[in-house]
Every structure is written in structure tokens, then in C-alpha cells.
Amino acid sequence: MTWAITEVAKQRPVKVITTWPAAFWWNPYIRDVYGIDEQKLYENVVKGNDYFELEPYTDSRFFNDWVNRLEIASSKLWLDIIAEPVIYLAEHEKLDNVLGWDKPILFQPFWSLMNSNWADKSYRSLRVNDAQYIADVLNSLWYTVYVLERDDQPKLMWCEQLTAISSRWLISLADRYPLIWVDSCMHHAAKAFWKQSVVIRSGTDAGRFWYNTHINLRNNEPYEYVPFRLWIDFNTDIVNQHTNIFDKSFLDTAIDMFVKMCEWNQIANNLTN
Asked: 38, 54, 88: which is the final residue of a domain?
């Protein structure tokens, strides 16, 4: 929603309340940005001002189609033009805005980048061993795997580690590098930039939460269901704690689809050039 809000901010003062303030850092048009957990948010920020709710899940028309989300956001804010995503990078972010390998990919095996153990729904995460298997195979195919992780999540071996601190910069890469995700936060950014991703899915509703332009992979429903990982056991693979129990053939299918997507992108780029 960043573009629509920015366009309004060019015309009148705007304060943004969001679960992810970093999306609006360095935006020269936004007056103030507040986290949703700001103390006395209503008394100090909301009270006395016009308030517009752009949370997509409060409107059924938002589901499943990013273009529709942008159209609705623009219309709610009385804009004549359909919004596009925009991230204002700081100078140091611009300097770091290129991955330095011939075949870089972005991989998010654990949901999510939010700094909360309550936000880490286990059905949206791969088991650590499964995530390591995918990374190892891609490494053997000479891909350099950049893993998106929170600082407190499990670390994968032989991968370049990226954390939530880099999340603004990572979103700015979403339209430029191949992507493979679990059902998590960053595939929304990829869709916003019209980028195709391979998404490994489990318990989410295809009719509401899937993007048809992504390559969506899902086999059986989870064998076990636990709504979140226990903080004390965060780095441990426990069957009744991690719900995505995929077999090797499914993981190989995900890798195969990802390699094919990279090949398609390379052919398309060559034709364009």
C-alpha cells in the first residue's frame, strides 16, 4: 500500500500506523510512522484525525489478487491511478542493493520476519532439516542461497545469512532475483513487484490466500497441528511442534520447479536483451 499512501501524503499531512514501520522509513512525504504497539496510540495519534483502515483482510475483495488490493487501496484514498509498491531506500541501502554472485537466490524457509515468537506459526515453516536439504541441493547446482531469517531462528549451513534488519533492502530486491518461500511474508512483496515465486504451502486456504501467478506447491495437510513453536524449543525439530512433514520427493519437486523458473527467467531476459 506504500504508493497509495505516499500519493496522499504529497497532498496532505499523513501519519501511518502499521505493524511494519520500516516500510516507510526514509519516505520524504510521510510525516510520522508509528508501530501498532505504540503506547497511547489512540490518545496521541488517532484521536482528532481522519482514519482510514487499509488492512487487506478486513475486506473480502482484497483476497487472492494483489492488483485488486491495490485498486481498492487507491479507491479508498480517492486516487485515480492504481497504486504501485514503492520503497524509499537510504543511501547505504542503495549501495548494497546488488547481490554479489552469478546465481543468487532468495530463500525464506521460516515464517516470519516479525520479531515475535507468537508470529512464527509452525505450519508456515519448514523443518530445519528440510530447509537445509533444499539449500544443499541448490548449492550443489551452483546457486548461492541467501536465507532470510530472524536473528533468533535456526541458521542453515553453507548459506549467506540475511536477517529482518535487511528486510527493506530485501523487498527492494524482490523484482530482481529468483525466489523460493514457504507461505510467509516475503512472497507478498514478490507479488507486489509482479515477480513469480515458488511457494511451499501447507494449511492456508487456496481460494483466499494463494496468488495464482506464483507456483504454489502443497502436498498433504499437516500431520500435526500446533499453532506456534514453543520459544524454549525454537531450534529443535520436534514432530508435534513442526507441522510441515514433507517427504523427499516433494522437496525435490519444489527444487525442480524453482530451477525451471530460473531457466524461464533467464530465457525471458535474453529475449528482452
From this structure: 88
